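dumping these here so i dont lose them again. two proteins, back to back, each one seq then structure tokens. dont judge the mess
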Amino acid sequence: MLGLISVLRQLGVEVLFDGPAMIRVRGTGGPLSGQVTATIPPDRMEAGTYLLTGLMVHERTSVVGIRLADFPVGFREAMATIGVDLLDGTEDGHMGTTALRRDLRAAHVTTTPHPGFPTDLQPQLAAFLTQAEGRSSVTETIYRARTTHVAELAKLGLGISVNGRRQEITGRQRPHGGSTVVTDIRCGAAVLVAAAAAPDPVVVADPAGHLARGYGDLAGKLSRLGMSVDQNVRSVA
């Protein structure tokens, strides 16, 4: 969002932050034209998804191209509470972020606007917390209906109870193989996190192509996390 706003301002569009929940845009009155210089920011949600996916089975997981400071403060704080150390840099010296998994502890996380914990990582976190010790909770304050992952995770043996906007998550659950359906991009991402720890294949049906839209070279990146992907049957294991 901030990268887009920077480009719009360079093109003469006035963008004002009118409080924490409103952005006011005043156009130029005609087609935009001109040259701008912009750096495309890293995708924090994609990077966070891969960190959580890798940490399901590995003590160390790294993502290249995104610094620790690029992640929202709320995400970094939640990871520390759960028992994950986030460090700048990767094992091969490239710019990136490395996550070190210790003993996973229960946490109580609430989504809030940036720089708090992002709603777009909430389903993935819920799947991850099924592996922590104790009883966790995730409270969604941004999107009321962001619990579509709960039914799909249940197909893999992971039980999450929903009470209004609050999800109650029992720890130390063990996922198993099964067939799931991606109803939206974050639901699909939560399934990927759970599938990383499943001992048997997980079939992921994504008829609308949500994951392909949000995760480039998904099969290649999952393979680097140690997961095998057969795209002919749309399965991961």
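---- next one ----
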Amino acid sequence: MALLVPVLLLGLAIAAPWLPIANPNGKELLNKLLPPVGLEGGTWRYLLGTDYQGRDIFSRVVYGGRVSFAISLLAMALAGLVGIPLGLLSGYYQGLNQTVMRLADIQLSFPGTFLAIALVAGLGPSIGNLILVLALTGWVEYARVVRSQVLSLKEQELVDAARALGASESRVLVRHILPQTLTPIIVLATIQSARFMLQEAGLSFLGLGVPPQHPSWGGMLNEAQKSIFETWLPALFPGLALSGTVLSLNLFGDWLAEMLDPRVRKQL
């Protein structure tokens, strides 16, 4: 059940180009601030109503989901591609341990959100820069989690036996240690994708994230401020989509951690 909201929104986002919905950037000023269908003045043409420029809110929520999911998933994958190898190497080779961990400590000394704002402000707001910035702020989590796993796994008898049989160091890392770190990696990736989605929305709300020509949930919340004293409905639906998706992914991550933990499975 926890995945119902994100799966539904992701399905709509993927199918958006083939759905019979309006252009998310199409403006009809004569139809601005229409209420959702079911309320007085609402129409089935605009299922969730329109914003202050007469744009279809349902269409913008759907296309905004494409942007949010794409950015969070790509940033999560890029952070993992950097953090997982660094965590493996720093945990296995003592010489790299101090270097990688000191870099991680330096980055963690800066609040993640403020670091992201500073980097985006310096690089300029664009989808590519936003993905890069989120990945740069997220690799540390993978590196620290994987390193802590490797420090204990490399002392196992299985690893000693592989070395005794002549396995190379790279084979020991890839074939015997890496597979045993996948459980915390999967859980972390689930929770981190939700956090990246929230950070993307926050940066877009501040005007430092997704450019205005691309609909995004954070950008919709920013634009809804302009009509907040007339109606709060344009802010309701992107807010519900964002909070519902983030909450669902966090709940799924907690459930996944319990299911993949053998100690919890034994208790169940």
